[in-house]
Design brief:
36% of the residues lie in helices and 21% in strands. It contains eight helices and six strands, in the order αβαβααβααβββαα. Strands 2-1-3-4-5-6 form a six-stranded mixed sheet. Strand 1, helix 2 and strand 2 form a beta-alpha-beta unit.
């Protein structure tokens, strides 16, 4: 029973995300598995209006299929002068363009026209202990500004046009450097604190 209690399904097959969760939760004795590990799959429609709602939709879709706690997260980039856009639509906004580079340029142009390049990355984690449990949420953010021109090729998505408040450019940062300050890191820290004391 003890072994089962310490196994958690992370609702993603993204290797970078898996690595980040495993690095932070393994020291607490948790085994983080992905859908491929359990030969399960689910692709629910993420039609929520917030990161919180979308994270819950993903977690709920898997908790109904596996006999262990589930973690799911949703994240995106919010531009202050655009009232938080693209936010939950970050990926869908990029899909309108032929490349992420074009999407980056378009977003920077919109932000400049609106008067401010201030932005933040947001990540909300949903944790479900079991199918009857109340969902718990842990949010992390990384504040900074958009860069007028992309820098570097590291990371993914909008990373090359984002500079953290501490001066770190995500497009130039190593995975290790980014993971120490990222929105997902800050959310996982809160989740880890909960798991440590629960």
């Amino acid at each position: 029973m003890e072994q089962l209690r310490k196994e958690i399904l992370l609702a993603t097959n993204n290797e970078h995300k898996l690595k980040e969760y495993r690095q932070m939760l393994a020291p607490l004795g948790y085994i983080i598995e992905c859908p491929k590990d359990l030969n399960v799959d689910s692709n629910p429609e993420e039609d929520g209006t917030t990161f919180k709602e979308n994270a819950y939709i993903k977690a709920k879709a898997f908790i109904e299929r596996v006999n262990r706690p589930v973690i799911a997260d949703d994240s995106g980039l919010e531009v202050e002068s655009l009232n938080g856009f693209p936010g939950i639509f970050s990926s869908r906004f990029a899909e309108k363009f032929s490349s992420y580079k074009e999407a980056q340029q378009a977003l920077v142009k919109l932000a400049k026209e609106s008067g401010s390049l201030k932005a933040r990355f947001v990540c909300t984690i949903c944790y479900l202990e079991n199918i009857n449990a109340r969902p718990l949420f842990f949010e992390g953010e990384c504040r900074g500004t958009l860069l007028e021109k992309p820098l570097g090729n590291n990371g993914f998505g909008y990373d090359p046009i984002f500079q953290c408040e501490n001066g770190l450019c995500f497009g130039l940062a190593s995975e290790e450097e980014k993971n120490k300050v990222s929105h997902r890191y800050n959310a996982i820290v809160k989740l880890a604190t909960f798991l440590k004391i629960s």
